[in-house]
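Quick board copy: two proteins, each given as sequence then tokens.
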Amino acid sequence: MELRHLRYFSALADTLNFTRAADRTHVTQSTLSHQIKQLEEELGVRLFDRIGKRVVITEAGDTLLAQVAPALRQIDIAVNSLSIPAGSMVGSVRIGATYSFNTRLVPQCVASFLSRNPGIRVTAEELSQARIVERLESDDLDLGIAYRPEGKHELWFEPLYNEEMVLVVNNEHPLAKRRCVRMVELHNVRMTLLPKTFNTRQQLDECFRAAGAEPLVVAEMNTIMPMLELIRHTDLAGIVGEKSIQLPDGLSVVALENPTPIRTPGLLWKRGGSDDIAIKTFASIVRRATETGAGKDLDRIGLLDTSTP
């Protein structure tokens, strides 16, 4: 039995399809079939049953897979470690970000981070504000990129920048040519906003109350891009962060005032921080990115500083 036999077995167990398993292991289907047969003959058990055109893993196959899969992963980690430059960091960073930051900022920061730290595994998840708080407190995340959480919690919040929220309408909307709009002018205006469970929506509702305005919220959507697409095709207006998205064609942005809704994005982590240099390095990259315009030209401005934040 050779290592390649186990890799072929693992690929077939994962796909249960000879064609896909052969593609994954870069061999012909006949070669894969022959290698699996050799492995079965050497072990003296059937690992797969062929039922018509279907491939089904046997009980013996399941038992072998449970032992082989972790071993193959460890072998891959060991082999890949040889290509990591001496002195490079190893480990993992688990990041949770709300949609606004996961669209552009997080991917660019991850790309810059990995370019100098190939030995680090990064897991980045798009989550709601509430889920980020929950998973940071339960140690399921290392770092959050979101807004200041409400209520009692065991987290540190480090503000990154202040972001004004703006009105978005399609180019044919009566407000499209305005330079700015007072919040009171949105009274009875048909709108689409985030649901009331979102902190941003709660903040907007407070601004409406302060201005004595009550918009007609006829649609609630929990993600921004579908909301913008809805605005593009209807007479609805919406309110989003000015830096959070790249507007599609056909939409106009109008400043809001009296009052101007302002959000403060920041870094979130468990109270007391972390001594993990990888987490500190990623946090440093996010800081530098937001200082220069929400993640533009990261490599050009040297965002790979690994000094302690």
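And the next:
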Amino acid sequence: MKISSFCCSSRTSSTRMALTIFLIISHIHKLESAKFSVVASDHPVTAIVGEAFLLPCHLSPRINAQNMEVKWFRPHPSSVVHLYRDGKDQNESQSVDYRGRTELLKDGLSNGSVDLKIHNIRLSDKGLYSCFIRSSLFYGEALLELKVAGFGSDPHIAVESYQDGGIRVVCLSTGWYPKPEVLWRDLSGRHLPSVSQTTFQRDNGLFEIQTAFIVTEHSNQNVSCCIRNTFLNQEKESTVSVSDSFFPKVSHWMVALWMIVVVLFVSIGLCIYLFKVKGKLVAELRWRRVLTHPANVTLDPDTAHPRLVVSKDGKSVRQGDTQQNLSNNPERFDYECCVLGCERFTSGSCYWEVEAGDGKHWAVGVARESVSRKGEFMSNLNPEGGIWAVRLYGDQFQALTSPKTPLPLKHSPRRIRVCLNCEQGQVAFFDADNQTLIFMFPLASFTGERLCPWLWVRGGSQLSLCH
């Protein structure tokens, strides 16, 4: 009887223990698989650029989330911010913008908390976030809006220069968002007007502010620069105090010196004005002087390059489409498309006019009678090569000096007056339409050698001697 009673009691005890373990396991499984809701903040939360911020989210009821999947992501467009699964972080698919910056606070998982910390907040982090949690049998989701503000650097005030009888001070600050409010104030808090203000938004979206104020002697020598983030309702302020020693002191000898300087500048200005008037008078006399000795110039066809077509009256020349079959006499240019005038000048002064068409490649001037006529001599189109001329070469108008001198004219002249003074060794070019001097070559010694008109034509251009 004792043995039987013992066996029965032992079997009953084991059954009770197994039933207790089963009930505990069933209860735990029931807790893990129970329905839950995901709770996040109903109102937008605000983070500061450069700081760390905690995105709050938890389960309700606050059941253990250690074996659940927790996923933070941006819904528009969809991108993974942080993923926790199978008891550890799984961030292989994490967005590049968040790599190395997120941390799920795992100490709170057992209490249903799935808060996410984002380090080094950026302006691009603002927007909606989804907190998604899934167990083996149920899932839930909550949306959270994050706003980002930039609370910039302390204003830096620097004394820049003297201006308008005072001292210009400049205030600079960076790293603000949204665009802040900028104020200058005196010690009593009264607002002061700035003389300039510049707001610049950098590539990262943050604003940089620069503003200036004029501090005058005995008035507003103690001022503060205040920059306020209206979204955070917070501000940063710096103060500057300018002592009397910074303001220039006016003395009698300085006043006298300034009066002397003013008189000196007035005298210099008057001299410059008289010099300009004299220059205009000289130019007018020069123009009238060259009008007194016109020369009737014609072109010498025996010197014209075979590609050039000289008119029968010798008054115009153009480049033909083909090369003419002409005798290669010693006077003829055989490489460069040049032609000389029939007239030869050894003394006195004279002028003639040449009209240029719509062509873009031509030159007008004077040449020695002995100028090279055979072979290429483009590099010798200068006084050393026996040529004094100006040319239009495409869109560039030049004097053929060595090296060439650019002539920055508003438009290329259509009618050029060539003026030659053999005694003075002078060659000058005028725009005959507006009577302005184009270019004058430095004095040269012609040493009694005969000089003649010289033309160069290329690319379909045409030059005509005016009657």
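Board note added afterward: The first helix runs from residue 2 to 32.
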